[in-house]
Amino acid sequence: MKEALRKFGLEYCELPDMLSNVSTMLRMLTLNVDSRNKTPILPIFKILMVIMSIDYIYVYVISGVWFIFWHCIRTGELGPAMIAFSLMSTSAVAFIKLLYMIFYEAKFKSLIDRYMACDSLTVKGSRFSKNLTKALRDVKKRGIVYWLVLNMNAVLYVLRPMVTPGKHLTVDTFIIIGLDPMFKSPNYELAVLMVMVGVFFICFTVANVNCFFIMITGYTESQMLALAEEMTHIWDDANEYYQTMMKELSMYGSVYLDHKDFNRIKETEVLNSHVTEHLIDIIQRHAFNVSLLEEIEDVMRGPNAVGFLFLIVGLVGELLGGLNNTILQLPFTLSQIGTDCFLGQKIMDANIKFEQAVYACKWENFNQVNKKIVLVMLQNSQKTMTLTAGGMATLSFSYFMNIIRSTYSVYTTLRSNI
């Protein structure tokens, strides 16, 4: 048990370990994205998934729709309606993505198999492997922090009404169908239990689903950073390779070493041959990673578009509902939007670093063939790798700030007109 838990730590940060970690967590949600794991999902997880899904749908979807479009319209209460609307919108994103991933499980298994195939090309112990592992360690740290923050947010959200004097719920003004009045026994106890189950289910789902994407997009980012290091050292590596080869030849007293003109020509040929070999390897790896990112974009285009729309609308609802009422909902929403934008920015930054490395690879020393290869690589690297919100916008820090500004503008406009 202790050894199994250790594998979730930073000591195990290579791709197979990270995918095994996130696959284990997703299996608790009855989703298996790892084709290597042939073990059937335990029936207890399937039963819990059904119970928690029914609880979530009843509390935050059915009751939410009834509360907003029937109860609040009848009573004229706008604030409680906005709070319930924001809860319904922001919580639905993870549930939609999870159902989508379960429905298209085969696609995600195929995607993971391609990532594993890409990782199998890495030579253990090489500089590329070491740089890749170093970058992946940061990626896993990113995933661990995100998972802990999301689930801690759930704990605080549930505990807040419990430590407040008197009888309270996470949202005092919200009513679950069939439990009105909410603050009389046994309705109160049932409401607390149902809300608690729904909150932990959604936060656990968000944390695991998003950690999955943190890991796979982080692997592409790490590959690009490691490839950038390879490009930076490619000419020095060629010279080192030549010097090593010459030392080995000198041990055998090669007659060719006495012929200076031949030796000079041989050096040029050997250096450029070594460079060509490594340039081809790098360009193939780069193309592989571009295709993997495009596949992620293609597979998640629909859910990402719907998800961002729900999150942005939910964010406006949280502001209209009053920050004093939604102070713990806001971090939940912003963490989802911010994480996606952060991942997109990191991919772009890694691509830019690779582009700079291509230009700084001392290509002026190469022969004409290798210069042409570098030119093609430079043109390809200038087509920046990006993640998008379902094709609607490029995810980045600037887009995150645009969302904040636009959301606040919509909020102030609606606030002044309501």
Task: Explain how this protein is built.
GO terms for molecular function: odorant binding; olfactory receptor activity. Belongs to the insect chemoreceptor superfamily. Heteromeric odorant receptor channel (TC 1.A.69) family. The chain crosses the membrane at residues 44-69, 81-104, 144-163, 190-216, 305-323. It holds the Pfam family 7tm_6. One of its GO terms (biological process) is signal transduction. This protein has helices at 2-6, 15-27, 43-75, 78-103, 105-119, 127-163, 187-232, 234-251, 260-320, 323-326, 329-359, 368-381, 397-417. The chain has 418 residues and is mainly α. It is built from 13 helices and no strands. The protein has one domain. The longest helix is centred in the last third of the chain and has 61 residues, at 260-320.
Helices and strands, with pairings:
Elements: H1 2-6, H2 15-27, H3 43-75, H4 78-103, H5 105-119, H6 127-163, H7 187-232, H8 234-251, H9 260-320, H10 323-326, H11 329-359, H12 368-381, H13 397-417
Helix pairs in contact: 2-7, 3-4, 3-7, 4-5, 4-7, 4-9, 5-9, 6-7, 6-11, 7-9, 7-11, 8-9, 9-11, 9-12, 9-13, 11-12
